[in-house]
Give the backbone structure.
Amino acid sequence: MSGFPLHLLRHGAPVGAGRLLGRTDDDVTDDGIAACAARAAGVAHEALVCSDLRRARRSAEAIGVPAVDARWRELDFGEWDGLAPREVDPVRMGAFWRDPDAHPPPHGERWSALVDRVGAAIEALTPGPTLVVTHAGTMRAALSYLCGLDHAGSWAIYLPYAAMLSLTVWPEVPRRGQVTGLRA
């Protein structure tokens, strides 16, 4: 059995930081781009992949020439997309945080759909050291898919902008993985 390293890098700080940015295509700040380039320096990878959203794509382009894959997009927050959390009805927001499958954002994506989408993106990777520049929700979905964490377990992990998770993907063991390092 052999695994391969998968490094998940959260994009740099976006122009609209502090809002629910799912499909909202805000740009990344220059400092955010620099932070991602610095974080990725020295990370061995044969493949570079990124979300198609500008904040991830521009962060990845500071590292190399990425393959763009929309499956690495952030959770779609539907009607809440682009809003600050305080602008959303607190009862509905609380229900979402407790159970994002039973209470997804209106016209948004369920947590399980995000995990399935990210799982498909992981399964499509060519085995080999890979760096993916993506989003915090997507990184948490990868942890759920590979490590079996539920949403509460994966959401408990702090992932600031330019944070990197390093895991080992075991192709022979679907939906399982081994966390080999966590750098925030």
Notes: The two ends are 29 Å apart (CA to CA).
